[in-house]
Amino acid sequence: MKPSRRSLAVAMGLCFALSEPSLGFDRNEPVAPLPEIDRLDAGKVALGQSLFFDPILSSDNQMSCASCHDPAAGGTMRTPRPTGKVDGKPLFNVPTIFNVANNHMFGWRGSLRSLVEQNEKVLLDPNLMGAQWDDLVSKLDGSKGYGDAFREAYGSPPTREAVLDALGAYEISLRTPGAPFDRYMRGDLAALTPQQIEGYGLFKDYGCASCHQGSNIGGNMSQRLGIFNDNNRDFRESPVDVATDQDEERRPFRVPSLRNVAKTAPYFHDGRTPDLTEAVSQMGLLQLGRYLSPGDIAALRAFLESLTGNVPNVPQPRSKRRDR
Questions:
Q1: CB-hemisphere CA count at 13 Å for 110?
Q2: Helices 144-154 and 133-141, axial angle in degrees (round to 10)
Q3: pLDDT band, residue 89 (cuts 50/70/90)
């Protein structure tokens, strides 16, 4: 017999709303529509976009931010995980860049607390872009296109602070508004199907919303993978865990945002699961200690598909690099 919402909540010690799904945004709901953002400086956004797509940021001029965070591929990449440029070891699965400004922590370990920290770590990491600030700003200033663009946007030659600010401005602009779920939460009762509404109810009832909450439906806390079924070593240990020494004390990962999750396969920190239905089933077992029924899995998947928003139209800009 399927447990009632209240009995399941009491049994699991979770705090979340027990009401039927809201027909209009209720601030007591565990999740919220994607908020509006403050107006951004168009010049800085345009400069950040050029930098984001340009491999000039990497030490060998071979890798751009978009090499891994491809807006045409859900803001991520389709392969399970990249490998380090220097040591060749597997890295973490690439998270989506969309709606990244709504996260409160960054990186799979959640150790970075701002876009500035995140971008600088990626730029300087020898296994990723491998840049050094003195060389990078000199290279940018030596390009007439970038030198002029920084002077126009910031009133100065390229600097560490300006590079990070421009990249952040562009990344903040990469939002996906208009998801059916957001429209539903704002009062559009026809935005969700009955199955999606059922899935949202299950999402709360089973406690998914205790970790995946807020306007990004995740991205604001860390959790250990495998709270239940902890003996399932085949699932828990992967080449990424071995390469990064993810022992039991270090295993908590940042809870990822579920926005656009239907478009960002493969799943989990090591990209081991290529299918969303299978990922839902695995999460039920590992995080909830439950074998979810096929009907519940289908409803939860339908709800997750309602989190797909309007992807920004991002034509790849021409590089501003022009030799002086």
A1: 18
A2: 100
A3: confident
* pLDDT surpasses 50 at 80: yes
What token pair was written down for 74?
A: 């859900």
d(CA 157, CA 136): 12
Annotated binding residue 212: yes
Q: Are 220 and 255 in contact (CB under 8 A)?
A: yes
Q: Name the residue with tokens 């380090």.
A: 84
| Residues linked to residue 83 through DSSP beta bridges, in sequence order | 90
Alpha helical stretches, state H, the chain: 5-12, 42-53, 115-124, 133-141, 144-154, 160-173, 180-185, 194-205, 233-236, 239-243, 276-288, 294-305
Nearest to residue 34, comparing CAs of 178, 173, 184, 174? 178
Residues 6+ apart with CB under 8 A from 17: 26, 28, 29, 30, 204
pLDDT at 240 over 70: no
Q: Is 15 annotated as a binding residue?
A: no
Q: Which residues lie across from 222 on neighbouring strands?
A: 254
- Taking the C-alpha atoms of residue 141 and residue 173, their distance in angstroms, rounded to an integer, is 25
Q: What's the mean pLDDT in 28-32?
A: 93
- Tell whether 68 is in a known binding site: yes
Average pLDDT over residues 173-190: 96
283 is in an annotated binding site: yes
The string of pLDDT tens digits covering residues 286-315 is 888 899 999 999 999 999 999 999 998 776
User: Tens digit of pLDDT for each residue in 121-168?
Assistant: 999 999 999 999 999 999 999 987 999 999 999 999 999 999 999 999
Q: pTM to 2 decimals?
A: 0.84
104 is in an annotated binding site: no
Q: How many Å apart are CA 147 and CA 69, to the nearest integer?
A: 25
Domains identified in the chain and CATH numbers = 5-36+178-305 (1.10.760.10), 42-173 (1.10.760.10)
Gap between the Cα atoms of 182 and 180, Å rounded: 5
